[in-house]
Amino acid sequence: MWRFVYNLLLHLALPFIWMRLKFRARQVPAYADRVHERFGRVARSAVDKSIWIHTVSAGEVIAAAPLILRIAAAFPNEKILVSTMTVTGYAQVQRLLGEQVEHVYAPYDFPWAVNSFLKVVKPRVLILMETELWPNLMRQLADQGIPVLLINARLSERSHKGYKRIGGLSRPMFASLAWTGCQYPDHARRLENLGVDNLDITGSVKFDLNIPGDLEQDRDLLLSNWKLEGRKVWIAASTHMAEEQLILEAHKKLVKKFPGLLLLLVPRHPERFSAVVAAARKEGFSTGQLTRPPDSEDGLQVLVGDEMGRLMYLYAMADVVFMGGTMSNTGGHNIIEPAGLARAIIAGPSRFNFTEIFSLFESAQAIVTISCLQDIVTEVANLLGSTKNRTEMGRRARQVVQDNAGATERVLENVIPFIEATLDSNTYNRL
């Protein structure tokens, strides 16, 4: 019954899915590329009989990249296929994994699209990141005896309640998982309640940061190119529309206290880069864009990060970090990268996507919570005005990252033997 309703609703949504793709392609032309793959038409036979790893978007690719490279090294004669749903995810696959893997856009969960995709790809095993489960995909994989491993799994209380309401559809998905590596005990209990029966708590692989070797050199080059040496800098990272006006208002007040202060403003979604530039200029700020040569560096007040894959380099330029998604009821974004670079971090109260991670930093007094415009001004000013406090908070943040590292190794201890057994037997075996 639930599967019939799900597929009916999915097919009713098909025109809207097409419309959304066309709309996104107008904003980001790359969404017009390889659309056929999203509907299961994969023409490249080079990806068949592969180890398939699905990482939805840029954040998941960045987190999974060290693990994917280790799997590729462990199985040099096997094809590694990495799928994403977003073009930003694809950009990170190109940047971090290059020619060591093949890339494809994963199909939408229409039964016919999934069937068409699997006929060509014929994966030996599927590794999913962070509870990216789809009913038709999981059903067809189970019917074909293709094992699915879920790594870095997390399940919020809100999602748990939603899955329980459609138990007839969700429980078979969770029960079919061959092995699950879960981030935290609370999430593990929720997953077990939904039918997962082979689970280990591994922690989050996002704590295993891969800091680029050219980070300091690239940061210094950016500072030099934009003539920012000696200036104080704060960054608002992965921001959403509801937050950017707040940040710009705060910056107006802060530049009065700190003449020469620069705001690095980095919107979450690339299609909004030009709108954010326009908003900053409308507020009267001298505004530059990272990908364009400056008309004049004199008096630059806002620099918009309009290039994907550069966020860690921008964190390295900043003295204070505001994490976006926390003041817009979005649930927050990953604070581990700036923490690993020992940056002082402030964030709003909306954190439901990363509850446990934020709690670790709060317990260590490695983050400052703000809730309104005046809080942003006060806390950023306090941190910019005290090198000692800023440095100490950054040190505590880095320590949290170091104390929670190691999840990648724990995941690989389970995943690599499983893949070996699957390749040897070509049958579905539980760990």
What would a concise description of this structure say?
This protein is an alpha/beta fold and 431 residues long.
Any descriptors?
431 residues, Rossmann fold, seven-stranded parallel β-sheet, disordered C terminus
Chart the SSEs and their pairings.
Blueprint: H1 2-12, H2 14-27, H3 35-38, E1 51-54, H4 58-74, E2 80-84, H5 87-96, E3 102-105, H6 111-121, E4 125-129, H7 135-143, E5 148-153, H8 157-165, H9 167-175, E6 179-182, H10 185-193, E7 199-201, H11 215-225, E8 233-239, H12 241-257, E9 262-267, H13 273-282, E10 287-289, E11 302-304, H14 311-317, E12 320-323, H15 336-340, E13 344-347, H16 355-363, E14 368-369, H17 373-384, H18 387-403, H19 407-425
Parallel strand pairs: 1-2, 1-4, 2-3, 4-5, 5-6, 6-7, 8-9, 8-12, 9-11, 10-11, 12-13, 13-14
Helix pairs in contact: 4-5, 4-19, 6-7, 11-14, 12-17
